[in-house]
Every structure is written in C-alpha cells, then in structure tokens.
Write a structure and sequence with these properties.
Number of strands: 4
Number of helices: 5
CATH superfamily: Putative Large Serine Recombinase, Chain B, Domain 2
Helix content: 25-40%
Distance between the termini: 68 Å
CATH class: Alpha Beta
Strand content: 5-15%
Structural class: alpha+beta
CATH topology: Hect, E3 ligase catalytic domain fold
Radius of gyration: 21 Å
Order of helices and strands: EEHHHEEHH
Length: about 150
C-alpha cells in the first residue's frame, strides 16, 4: 500500500495537519487546542462546557463554521486519526494504516480519553419509550375516533 512507503494517498486530511512539501505536518496551534480540550475532558468537563469555553476564549474553530459546538468536540475524539491511524475500504475490506498521519497523542492517552467519555454516555437513546409520549398523539387519535 502506498501509505507504507510514506506517500499521501488521500487529500482529505484532519484539520490539525497541513501538507508542506508533500509531507503531513502538525499545526502546533491546533495541537495545543486539542491538548487543552484533553485537559478539560480529564477535568470532568463535557462537550457543551468545552465548546462554550473555547468560544468564550475566542479560540478559532477548525474547519467550517464560526463557533465550536459539542458535536465538533465529539467528532475530534470519535476517530483514531489523533493517534495517526488512517482507515479506508479497499475491495470491500477495511484497511487500517497505523502511523499514516502524524500523531497528536499516544494510543494510551487516546484510550484514557475514550474511557472517560464512555463513562459519561447515558445509554438512553431516542425519546424514551412510553414515559415520554407524543403530546399530540391522543388529540389526533381522539379526533379520528370521533368521526
């Protein structure tokens, strides 16, 4: 695979990396922001609090949009690009190239962040079943039944 030889096989790169003279280089200012976010996660802050703090401190967001959102923070830690992994699908099979991107953090640090974030997940998805019914459901049903 080309990535093993050190060549760039995709133009879609993380927003904390620049390509200079054909090499991927970390952007120090953005790495510092990622490290700040890691510190905030370790301190117990959630995505919303982190986004608010970054916006209050007028820290420029990576990528499109003027402001940090909780989903921006979530997306940073959703993929293993921070530890240098590139994932792709070739002939229907997932391929992982370790060390493709320059790593922002070690795998140990990444896993520690993931463990913290996993403990915060509330495992409730959706609207919560019958305990949170549609307020208009009975009105529509009653109206239909009356006809």
């Amino acid at each position: 695979m080309n990535a093993i030889k050190g060549s760039i096989i995709t133009r879609k790169i993380p927003t904390w990396i620049h390509i200079i003279d054909g090499k991927m280089i970390l952007i120090p200012e953005r790495v510092a922001i990622i490290n700040k976010i890691c510190t905030m996660i370790h301190a117990g802050q959630g995505y919303l609090a982190i986004a608010r703090k970054l916006n209050a401190d007028k820290i420029a967001k990576f990528g499109p949009g003027p402001y940090w959102t909780p989903s921006d923070i979530h997306y940073l830690f959703e993929h293993r690009k921070l530890i240098g992994e590139y994932r792709t699908t070739i002939d229907g099979k997932e391929k992982i190239v370790v060390g493709y991107y320059p790593a922002v953090m070690s795998e140990l640090e990444f896993n520690a962040i993931q463990a913290i974030l996993l403990t915060r997940k509330n495992n409730v998805k959706g609207r919560g079943g019958n305990s949170c019914p549609n307020l208009f459901g009975t009105l529509i049903q009653d109206e239909y039944v009356q006809r």
